[in-house]
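[audit] Reproducing an earlier prediction to check determinism. Same input, same settings, fresh worker. If the tokens differ from the archived copy the diff job will pick it up downstream; this log only records the rerun itself.
[audit] input (346 residues):
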Amino acid sequence: MSQQTVFRFPTRNVFDDLTSYQEAIPTPSRDEVLIKVRAVSLNSRDCQIATSKYPFAIKERVIPGSDAAGDVVEVGAGVHDFAKGDRVVVSFDNTRLYGPAKDVVSGQGGGVDGVMAQYIARSASAVTKIPAESPQSYSELASLVCTGVTAWNSLYGIKPLIAGQSVLVQGTGGTSMTALVLAKAAGATTIVTSSSDEKLQKVKELFSPDFCINYTKTPDWAAEAVKLTGGKGVDHILEIGGVGTIEKSLAAITQGGVIGIIGYLAQYDPAKIPNVLLLALGKEAVLRGIQIGPKCMLDDLVTLVSRQKLRFHIEKEFAFTREDIVSAYHALASGKHIGKICIVVE
């Protein structure tokens, strides 16, 4: 039986616990496709899983990684929508085709094995075909799976973004920069916050947002955001910091606006936790937890980025070797990047 290289975390204390194995290339079942992985996109979640800081259950000896793009190399006998050679991406949660997630442990690279392998077999129902005319690289396509669907879900999942509205994204990581691209494509006014003038300058050069706020120089960035929106407040905010930034987000949001709760790692003083319920009530705001999104959203996202030929910034690509993958984890954890860190699988 043919062999492939697969990476697993037999223990999860440090990134260097990542271990390479030679395992059999899977044989697709009747309803599956076999995919040759071409690129894997890393997320903050991957770093948390690798160091046992992720708040949900993790499979023992897990194959890491949730975001993959590749080529179909074999189809099961019952599969009729895919053919050998199709470029594809795989949904984050293979069991979530529509609606809310059934649980928090079905995401690839966490509660089930992920995509850090040369070949993966997946149910055809969890796979999205990339139109032949799509200009995006495999790394760009892989980045749509987690950060792309998260951004899409935040902007369109409950109260769809409308042209002329405003969107504020926190930081310059993958989800925020993907949301920035989508918001600009929708005709929204865009605001980016960061603590680094250097990063904000690069964001201006790469993405041309309408406004940038350095929150170390402008601590009351919420008031500045309200000012920039003519006193109205922001229509959509992607909340990356969690408890540490939610009070400012609620101050910045417009009446009836939507805050997508995505991250939770910002530092905060437990003695100064804001009364979130009262603040949300005062703004009639929607605070909505975002756990990526269903496969149908990935389908819609792929359709949009293909038709509009949207491009996404890949900060750096690493090789599919243990040393390079560990380096990719360190690069992501450093927080110095803008956009995405990816691994190219040859």
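[audit] rerun output stored. Observation attached for the diff report: The domain at 149-289 is CATH 3.40.50.720 (Rossmann fold).
[audit] end
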